[in-house]
Amino acid sequence: xxxxxxxxxxxxxxxxxxxxxxxxxxxxxxxxxxxxxxxxxxxxxxxxxxxxxxxxxxxxxxxxxxxxxxxxxxxxxxxxxxxxxxxxxxxxxxxxxxxxxxxxxxxxxxxxxxxxxxxxxxxxxxxxxxxxxxxxxxxxxxxxxxxxxxxxxxxxxxxxxxxxxxxxxxxxxxxxxxxxxxxxxxxxxxxxxxxxxxxxxxxxxxxxxxxxxxxxxxxxxxxxx
Length: 225
Fold this sequence. Notes:
There is one protein chain. By secondary structure, the protein is α/β, with parallel strands linked by helices. The protein has 2 domains: 8-19 and 98-223, Rossmann fold, CATH 3.40.50.1000; 20-96, DNA polymerase, domain 1. The protein has 10 helices and 6 strands, in the order βαααααβαβααβαββα. The protein has helices spanning 20-34, 41-56, 63-78, 89-93, 103-110, 124-134, 144-147, 155-164, 177-186, 214-223; strands at 8-11, 115-120, 140-143, 170-174, 191-194, 209-211. A 6-stranded parallel beta sheet has the order 3-2-1-4-5-6, sandwiched between helices. The longest helix is centred in the first third of the chain and has 16 residues, at 41-56. 40% of the residues are buried.
């Protein structure tokens, strides 16, 4: 069997490497409890999924501001009278968002054979906090702060193509079909869907491969050798 041609495997961070939903939910629950407000767990994430993309689709602003605006929008949706000066709780919590248990072992296996990179919708300093928690060194990163844009806009992926030397040398892996997989497929970038939620995929323009987690991704790559 022919060895895989890719020299770099890039990843989305939040949702793929880091369990952002647990981090966000817990941050909301703690901050609301300090105000004596009890929030419904499922409603937090549902509202967040709706509101954050709307905020990111507006004129570019730093991710800390995106998080604050999203926190205020979610709080309003859920009936929590959050004061604007306290909306920074979400950005402050980000470096403590938990890492999926398969992330570090899988990345350590990959690093012996590929360069690894992150393409993320965050500010540089916030990503550094998460990388420290992951505990693995990445060869390079591309953030929203650097490209002044948020996925699913293509700026991250275009910058990754330039850095990696073209689609033939880059494999992109991510959990979000909306933010990463669909845009990668549109640009002709080989993509692996890390389908942690066992979601249904669109019928057309699918990824090169689908896995349930990062362990399956590495197992698949090793079988290609």
